[in-house]
Amino acid sequence: MYCYILLCAAAAFxxxxxxxxxxxxxxxxxxxxxxxxxxxxxxxxxAVNKTAEYxxxxxxxxxxxxxxxxxxxxxxxxxxxxxxGTNWLxxxxxxxxxxxxxxxxxxxxxxxxxxxxxxxxxxxxxGEIIQFPVASIEQQFTAPQDYPSYPQAVNHTQWPxxxxxxxxxFDAFYKTQVPFQVDGMMQAVYNNLSFSALLDNIGPxxxxxxxxxxxxxxxxxxxxxxxxxxxxxxxxxxPPFKGYSGPPFSPEWPPASDxxxxxxxxxxxxxxxxxxxxxxxxxxxxxTAPTPDLAPCxxxxxxxxxxxxxxxxxxxxxxSQASYHTVYDYCTAEYLKQAxxxxxxxxxxxxxxxxxxxxIFMERNNLEIAEFVEPWIAGHARGR
Length: 384
Ligand SMILES: *[C@@H]1O[C@H](CO)[C@@H](O)[C@H](O)[C@H]1NC(C)=O
Ligand SMILES: *[C@@H]1O[C@H](CO)[C@@H](O)[C@H](O)[C@H]1NC(C)=O
Ligand SMILES: *[C@@H]1O[C@H](CO)[C@@H](O)[C@H](O)[C@H]1NC(C)=O
Ligand SMILES: *[C@@H]1O[C@H](CO)[C@@H](O)[C@H](O)[C@H]1NC(C)=O
Ligand SMILES: *[C@@H]1O[C@H](CO)[C@@H](O)[C@H](O)[C@H]1NC(C)=O
Ligand SMILES: *[C@@H]1O[C@H](CO)[C@@H](O)[C@H](O)[C@H]1NC(C)=O
Ligand SMILES: *[C@@H]1O[C@H](CO)[C@@H](O)[C@H](O)[C@H]1NC(C)=O
Fold this sequence. Notes:
single chain; alpha/beta; eight-stranded mixed β-sheet; 10 helices; globular; binds 2-acetamido-2-deoxy-beta-D-glucopyranose; AB_hydrolase_fold; AB hydrolase-1 domain-containing protein; Carboxylesterase_BioH
């Protein structure tokens, strides 16, 4: 999928704006990469029983600068569980991805890989890394309509191809899935430190997260409120406080074990009145499912504490029609509102965008959704 920079530049000048499967690499003029964060530690690699000094937690970041920069504020993309920067470049069926789309629209783009994932090294012995099985990817992401394990799954139509093993587009997608840290706390700590270091290095940015990375977007906004100019959260990890797998999910839906004691994150967020690092000060209240095809969830008890720093950052949150997130994302949006965050939650079918699953930035209509989001981003990106 990649080509040498000179060749790409020649191809790009010949056919700009790009439309071919090479779009992902044709849309930029210059490319750079660097690592952000990382700490030296003395630890043991058990496989060789070698105790020595190593580095942990640093994250790989790829910077792509467009031919014609039209905005001052760059975009930082952070992919969700098992994903890397490649997912934003182009789609598994070789079309233009969101990073390429935004490059073509004049934005500088940073693709950041989470700590201990992809090109961000994992030091063996630092927790454990695991991989999503084929069947989980099919059931949750690419072919939920074939199972279906929640009512809205039947409407999933936008994945390119059958979404099942053996389909060349599924196979291409599955090859991009990489192992990820199973210890959520360790991952949160390293991501928080390294993504903060990234913004300290590059300055103000708009952060675009997907899924599990949603937690790290909130954490980053909390730690670097003056540098995060806006957050676009595509189906961020939810619902508030803890994962959910009860009805309307069917019994074969994987049990949820993820915990977000600070509402949106495993690590402390700044609230007013303050709670410090004591999550039990965040008083919870059960919220009944508004309709039978949605999940019950947990909100704060009123009067709710406000998210001190995050409430200063505009947020656009998107949820698709047929993803499992459609079951509970309403509650994540409600939690943000309750805590004073300036969030605009868009349920895609309400704006006439139908049939998407969880990978809304990769599916057949990914550019239609990018076109929908772009004006909001432009409004926060300081046009030149
Ligand atoms: C690791 O141990 C060595 C030898 O004791 C020491 O010089 C070094 O500062 C230690 N590094 C860290 C990060 O603690
Ligand atoms: C690892 O090395 C230490 C020190 O050389 C030794 O005491 C220990 O038995 C070794 N452990 C294993 C599992 O080989
Ligand atoms: C499927 O989509 C249609 C049209 O958007 C909608 O009316 C219907 O409620 C959806 N079905 C489910 C189970 O969500
Ligand atoms: C997150 O990282 C920032 C910047 O390095 C640090 O100041 C802050 O304490 C960290 N937050 C948590 C909850 O660890
Ligand atoms: C976040 O909020 C805390 C608590 O109000 C405050 O002390 C801190 O300065 C804020 N962080 C930033 C980056 O503004
Ligand atoms: C956390 O807050 C709870 C509820 O007010 C209190 O009982 C507990 O002692 C606090 N824990 C710490 C470590 O401050
Ligand atoms: C919320 O519901 C759970 C079980 O559904 C229950 O265990 C818990 O006590 C309830 N919490 C409150 C604050 O009502």
